[in-house]
Fold this sequence. Notes:
Blueprint (H helix, E strand, L loop, with lengths): L10 H8 L6 H9 L1 H21 L7 H8 L5 H11 L3 H23 L4 H27 L32 H9 L1 E3 L1 E2 L14 H7 L3 E5 L2 E9 L7 E9 L11 E6 L4 E5 L5 E7 L3 E8 L2 E9 L5
Parallel strand pairs: 1-10
Antiparallel strand pairs: 2-3, 3-4, 4-5, 5-8, 6-7, 6-9, 9-10
Helix pairs in contact: 4-6, 7-8
Amino acid sequence: MECRQRGAISDEEMLAYLAGEQVRPAVLEHLATCPTCATRVESYRRLELTLLQSLYRWDCPPAQVLGEYYLGLLNKEVAVAVRFHLATCQHCTAELAILSHFLTAETQLAEASPLSELDLAELELAASLALEQEEASTETEAEASEALPWPSSWPLDDGPSQARPLAAARPGRASLGEQMASSARRIVATLLAPQPRLAYQRDLTQMEQAEALWPRRYSAEDFSISLHVEYGPSHQDGLELIGFVTRKGTALEALQGTPVRLTAASGTVRSGKIDELGNFLFSALAPEMYTLELQFPEGTVVIESLQLALPE
């Protein structure tokens, strides 16, 4: 079927009408009376919807890239590309704001409510599953890399941009899934037997001597932790727990800034960090049972059932 008034309206006017722009009154009258042109406009509308569905957020980075951008895990080139994209994309900006709010809330919740053993076990399982899914996803992306090119607006390479495994975007850095799995891993430290003592103490077993005497030495994989308890500056100031941490083949400066958490059986949580000399200190402690956690990137070293008592 042909148009009743050939040339009455142009294709440009049809597209303008479809886009909601102002058009001549004659265009509206013609479309209301001409089934052929009305059908053409409807076909244009369907084509536009198809294109919108296919190209919706076509140049947006994957959610995982946004997450690693927020955590500072991307290399400089990719991070700059994400930053430029965020300046013009309200969708990704909103996603990043939601991620920031979620992670902030999770951090506050974790500080207010320390994880139980069951929670940690569930987290470790979830992290392991996430790592497996990420590895499977990486393999799939590698197979489909030629068929799924990166958008041209993403300057990830000097040559034609193509999809690539996320690990390539941050060489030498652990993936988000790997970091989750490693940070959830708990490494329980072992109390080492002390050096031989005086004759009157030899009736005790080595473990009983270790539990009764300070300082104590603990071992966890390639980490070594020495702990000592003493009074504060005044006996009324409570106890001080002094720690010294070393790692085989690692300089003490590399351990600086490692978070340390001391949780009392009463629920009180104290936080600190290892200094440049490998030391940490907790003051004004009450004599009770504690759990000490040293949160290294490879996992959390845990010293359980740490009974602090007044020095004799």
